[in-house]
Structures are given as structure tokens and as C-alpha cells.
Known about the structure:
By secondary structure, the chain is α/β, with parallel strands linked by helices. It has a single domain, classed as Rossmann fold (3-Layer(aba) Sandwich), CATH 3.40.50.720. The protein has eleven helices and 13 strands. The strands form four sheets. A seven-stranded parallel beta sheet has the order 3-2-1-4-5-6-11, with helices on both faces. Strands 7-10 form a two-stranded parallel ribbon. The chain is globular. This is NAD-dependent epimerase/dehydratase. InterPro entries: Epimerase_deHydtase (IPR001509), NAD(P)-bd_dom_sf (IPR036291). Keywords: NAD. Residues 13-293 form the NAD-dependent epimerase/dehydratase domain.
Amino acid sequence: MLDKNIDLSGKRVIVTGAAGFIGSNLCMELIKRYSDIQILGIDNVNDYYDVGIKKDRLKRIAEILGDKVGTAGEYGVSETIGDSRFVFIKGNIADRAVIDKAFDEFKPEVVVNLAAQAGVRYSIENPDAYIEANLIGFYNILEACRHSYDSQKASDDYKGVEHLVYASSSSVYGSNKKIPYSTDDKVDNPVSLYAATKKSNELLAHAYTKLYGIPSTGLRFFTVYGPAGRPDMAYFGFTNKLVKGETIKIFNFGNCKRDFTYVDDIVEGVINVMEKAPDENENGVRYKVYNIGNNDPVNLLDFVDILQQELISAGVLPKDYDFEAHKELVPMQPGDVEVTYADVTPLQQDFGFKPNTPLREGLRKFAKWYKEYYG
Length: 375
């Protein structure tokens, strides 16, 4: 295992995508673990999916903080930098002025960039959103990290960004035939624009690390799921359709496998990585990329079977629900891949950690949340 070189206690941390699925859960866990951590959350709270879920995530952060919230803003959390352990800015990372102001005033020591336009299929319909958020937005983050080392900004108590952690995706593996997917694999054949932007993030981070000395770690997430997740993901979308009595489409006639990773495991992995800025590699660059996946791909038909059982158990669907009448096997969608399967050996070797939440356990928690949230 690697020796950790960043103590998050008392650190100033920027988390972009703070109203997002992973970002909000990360903020909540950091607040629970580190009583004196200061977090600046940034999110544009766009309407790619139900804004109500995003607002609810921010309110859950506020509930954890209790009377330490400070002057509550629209989302129940402080909107004044320095006013609370968690401050929220509604802003777009593609807006350079927003990012520069946040970095200049907050002076982050650790940055976790989770803000992005997600979704493989949506990247076919609306490529502009991906160029803006995933390329321009990430470029702004890199530039802000770079300039955090400027002599006029640095001081005795602030030496600039100590570690940049950013979200990549299992989508970068494209149609890679070798499984499980390893970070040593060549990933130059993306099959979606979304995947191409995520691979671009890794390339940009490497260049900025080499040129400006920003210690950076990219994390390739594998099909993240859980309570209060993204409604565009299969488990959530399927549930919505089944509740409405609509038909769910299972792509590639069910001959797909996904490495489903529970959100708590993702958050645990992110925090572990935050605490270890990379050492110099053989090329003299402080740069790393890890997979974070469950290392246990599940066939989509088996996944749907487990989901339906847990939805019945939680009372989301009646016991006599006719699933066969609401399932349709269809061909593969453009941009999709048949299998995702994470090799997490480096993560386990470096941090003594690997995701291990069983799919049934994770879907059970989602089903219970869904019942409570939607009644």
C-alpha cells in the first residue's frame, strides 16, 4: 500500500458537480469524516434530469450540517465563501469567471472535478453540451489549478493545489476486446463522443501535470448506481417505466454485461485517492489513472431480474406484476458496448481497497429509497 501524503483534516476542497449523484455523496461523507474540512461545491443544477433530485441532494448536505450551515441560500446551504463548512455556488464550470473567482477567493488545496455532461446516448443528440462541460469546463479547472501556483497568489499558508482528482469513465475503453479492462490497455478507439471527451480529459491532465506540475489522478468509474441516483441510468429509468406500466427495452437482446458499482464504494475510492497525490512516475510526471468498478460484471437480464424482485419487496411494484409483458429485447444502441469489466488490481494494491457491495444489496437500498421518495 502507498503511504498517504495529504491529510484532509482542515483542508479546503473544491468539489464540482456537488449537486450530482457522486458529488453530493462525496460531500456528505467528507463532512461526516472531517469536522474541520471546508468544501466549496460548484454545480449549475441543469435540467438534464429532474432538478428536484439535485435540490434534494443539496438539502441532505444541509441537514448533515445542521446549525453549522450559516446563511442558507436557495438550496438550504450557505452561498457565501467562508461562511460554512460547505458553501455552494450555482455556476457553470465552462464559465471561466466563475471558476477563477472561486479559486481566487477560496484557495483550494484539493480539487475534485466531477462536473460533466454525462450519458452516452445523449452525446449523440446534443454534442454541444459535452464540448462545453467536459472540454471547456475541464480546461478551466486545469487553468485555475495551474495559476494557483502563481507567486502573487501563493503565500506562507497557501502553496496552491496539492492534488487534482477528476472523473473519467469506463466508456474510454470503447470496443476493447480484452477483459477485464486495465488502465494499461490502449484506449484510442472511443465509440461515443462522451467517451472521447473523457479520454481527452486524461490527455489534458497529463499535459498540464507535465508542464505545470499539477499532481493529478483520473478515476474511470464503472456504471455507478444507488439511492437518489441519475434517472437516465438503466436501473432508475427501468423503474420509472415499470411503475407507469410502460415497456422497458433491454439492448443487444440482453447479451450485455455491466460492472455495476454502488455509489458508497465509489465515494470510498475517491476519498482514498484524494489522500494520496501521485509520486513521480518513470517519466517524471505526478500522474495516475485508476479504475473504480465492482470487478464483477452482471448480465443485463440477471440485473433486471434482481431489480424486479427488490422493487416488489420494497412495495414499489405489486407482487403480481407481469414483468414479461413489460420487457422488450432490442438491438444494440449506437455508442453502447457489450461488456464493461474493471480490473481494480492497482487500486487494491495502492490503497488496500476494492468495491465489494453486492448488486442485490445496492438495488435493495435503491428500491427502498425510491419507495420513500416517490411514495
